């Protein structure tokens, strides 16, 4: 049982997931970076630093604690306003990144969600207590196999699949979303397999070059396996170094540095410790070259975060919104139980947003909404009704309604039909043009989440400073959390070197097309 618990903790931590649109009066910024010496067929390395944020990044650079990031910034272009996906949880964001779609198309609704067809809660790694109740076998099946091979929609193509059709080789290093055209075997470490009842391996499809910690690696001498089973920054850097040193770096590589996310969750958004550690590993990579400037030759480097985190109040009574208490009048499905006739609701908390699913026809959606809107820490509640998305807030009068296609266009040339109080989502409308405020690309991102799955459900989004919890959710009081649609969670930096090709829109959903254009 001790080894079983250790495995559950390690595996949950290793895969726990936890964004740049302009400010109100700031023009959209496009990264236009330096040209390479040879513009034919450049190789692209996309580095994702989990929960990388503008202020701590600049602080680390100013204090000379991040020389590698300072180097890339000095030789490239920078913006702090890359717009994330929604929910702002890594599994959904990274699915958006590699498919170029929002959840209405790629079908990964969040880190935790309720599968109406299978009548069970799907958990890709939301804290070890939830995984303990879900069960190690089911969790491993979801995280190591089903996520990429079943749940990620077959109706969208990943960047790995599209580039492979063009005859270009790609790699994914410690990225948990990696689907491609090549079959690989993820090997469960022997000690874990023997003490948990898990199979000794899972077959999965990924890019031609795939590394995922202790489960599969390119460098057999990569010994950075003890820390979170290899899902750590040092392992990622060593795998990239191996490709560089052996001259096997493919045309496109996604490299994931997960460490910063855990540090920010514990110590809050202004900590630089995780950035400093990621920078040390980037220095290791740059040191492979005769000098750092050589790393820029014939290579495009893209360094991004996936989302921000916002501070959660230290006082648990104030900072944590326990939806079980708010909805205590209903019978709520428990994590370790099968759905029964008595169950009326399912709650899946994704830190600063949550899904609330209505299971019973005997209860009213409006009654649930009326209970939720009494909590002043909830920013707004959304649901589908009469062919439109409805959004209600306790801070505003009326209801806001919207749907795709209409007379209004936003900065991304998306058209919308809207009714009601648009101030609920902080929209400014002038001459049939929509400007976003606190919720960058808010209409498309919320639409994506509302159409990400089947069922009768609500989305609730927390105000800055607050976090939702469910039955055994992780808690981040005094630290940082993400998940919400708010700009405090949704904007992240981007550094680009090696290309003068502009990107039309600074959104995570647009990066795939931009990269494909660069590699034509």
Question: What does this molecule look like?
Answer:
- By secondary structure, the protein is an alpha/beta fold.
- The chain folds into two domains: 2-26 and 35-311 and 487-518, Alkaline Phosphatase, subunit A (3-Layer(aba) Sandwich), CATH 3.40.720.10; 316-481, no CATH class.
- The strands form six sheets. Strands 13, 14, 15, 16, 17, 18, 19, 20 and 21 form a nine-stranded mixed sheet that branches.
- Strand 19 and strand 20 (433-436) form a beta hairpin.
- Helix 4 (90-99) runs parallel beside helix 18 (508-518) and helix 11 runs antiparallel to helix 12.
- The protein starts with a helix and ends with a helix.
Please give a handful of descriptors for the protein shown.
single chain; 520 residues; alpha/beta; Alkaline Phosphatase, subunit A; 9-stranded mixed sheet; 7-stranded mixed sheet; 24 strands; disordered N terminus
Provide the residue-averaged pLDDT: 91
Annotated CATH architecture of the largest domain: 3-Layer(aba) Sandwich
Q: List unreliable stretches of 5+ residues.
A: 1-10, 12-39
Helix content: 25-40%
Per-chain topology:
Layout: H1 2-15, E1 43-49, H2 54-62, H3 67-74, E2 77-83, H4 90-99, H5 103-106, E3 112-115, E4 120-123, H6 128-134, H7 136-151, H8 159-165, E5 170-173, E6 182-187, H9 190-196, E7 201-206, E8 209-211, H10 233-245, E9 252-257, H11 259-267, H12 273-286, E10 299-304, E11 310-311, H13 316-319, E12 320-322, H14 323-326, E13 345-350, E14 353-358, H15 365-372, E15 378-385, E16 388-392, E17 399-410, E18 415-420, E19 427-430, E20 433-436, H16 442-450, E21 457-462, E22 467-469, E23 480-481, H17 487-490, E24 491-497, H18 508-518
Helix pairs in contact: 1-6, 1-7, 4-18, 10-12, 11-12
């Amino acid at each position: 049982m001790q080894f079983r618990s250790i495995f559950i903790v390690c595996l949950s931590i290793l895969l726990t997931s936890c964004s740049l649109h302009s400010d109100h009066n700031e023009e959209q910024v496009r990264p236009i970076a330096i040209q390479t010496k040879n513009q034919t067929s450049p190789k692209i390395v996309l580095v994702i630093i989990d929960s990388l944020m503008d202020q701590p990044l600049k602080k680390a650079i100013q204090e000379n604690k991040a020389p590698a990031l300072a180097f890339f910034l000095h030789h490239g272009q920078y913006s702090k306003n890359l717009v994330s996906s929604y929910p702002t949880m890594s599994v959904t964001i990274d699915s958006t990144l590699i498919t170029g779609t929002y959840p209405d198309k790629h079908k990964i609704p969040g880190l935790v969600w309720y599968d109406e067809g299978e009548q069970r809660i799907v958990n890709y790694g939301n804290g070890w207590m939830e995984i303990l109740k879900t069960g190690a076998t089911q969790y491993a099946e979801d995280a190591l196999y089903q996520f990429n091979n079943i749940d990620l929609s077959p109706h969208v193509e990943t960047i790995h699949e599209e580039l492979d059709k063009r005859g270009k080789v790609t790699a994914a290093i410690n990225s948990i979303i990696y689907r491609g055209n090549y079959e690989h075997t993820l090997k469960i470490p022997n000690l874990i397999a023997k003490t948990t009842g898990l199979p000794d391996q899972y077959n999965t499809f990924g890019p031609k070059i795939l590394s995922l910690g202790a489960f599969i690696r390119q460098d057999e001498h990569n010994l950075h396996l003890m820390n979170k089973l290899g899902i750590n920054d040092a392992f990622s850097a060593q795998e990239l170094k191996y490709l560089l040193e052996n001259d096997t770096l493919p045309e496109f590589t996604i490299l994931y540095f997960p460490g910063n996310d855990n540090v920010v969750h514990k110590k809050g958004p202004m900590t630089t410790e995780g950035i400093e550690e990621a920078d040390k590993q980037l220095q290791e990579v740059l040191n492979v070259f005769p000098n750092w400037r050589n790393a820029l030759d014939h290579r495009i480097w893209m360094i991004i975060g996936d989302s921000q985190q916002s501070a959660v109040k230290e006082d648990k009574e104030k900072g944590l919104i326990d939806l079980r208490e708010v909805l205590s009048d209903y019978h709520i499905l428990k994590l370790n139980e099968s759905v029964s006739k008595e169950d009326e609701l399912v709650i899946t908390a994704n830190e600063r947003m949550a899904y609330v699913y209505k299971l019973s026809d005997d209860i009213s959606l409006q009654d649930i909404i009326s209970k939720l809107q009494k909590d002043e820490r909830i920013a707004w509640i959304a649901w589908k009704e009469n062919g439109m998305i409805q959004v209600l807030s306790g801070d505003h009068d009326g209801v806001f309604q919207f749907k795709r296609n209409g007379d209004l266009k936003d900065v991304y040339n998306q058209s919308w039909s809207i009714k009601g109080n648009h101030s609920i989502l902080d929209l400014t409308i002038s001459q049939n043009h929509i400007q976003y405020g606190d919720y960058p690309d808010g209409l498309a991102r919320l639409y994506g989440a509302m159409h990400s799955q089947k069922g009768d459900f609500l989305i609730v989004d927390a105000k800055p400073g607050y976090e939702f919890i469910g039955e055994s959710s992780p808690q981040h009081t005094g630290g940082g959390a993400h998940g919400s649609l708010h700009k405090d969670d949704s904007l992240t930096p981007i550094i680009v070197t090696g290309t003068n090709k502009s990107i039309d829109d600074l959104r995570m959903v647009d990066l795939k097309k931009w990269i494909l254009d660069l590699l034509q």
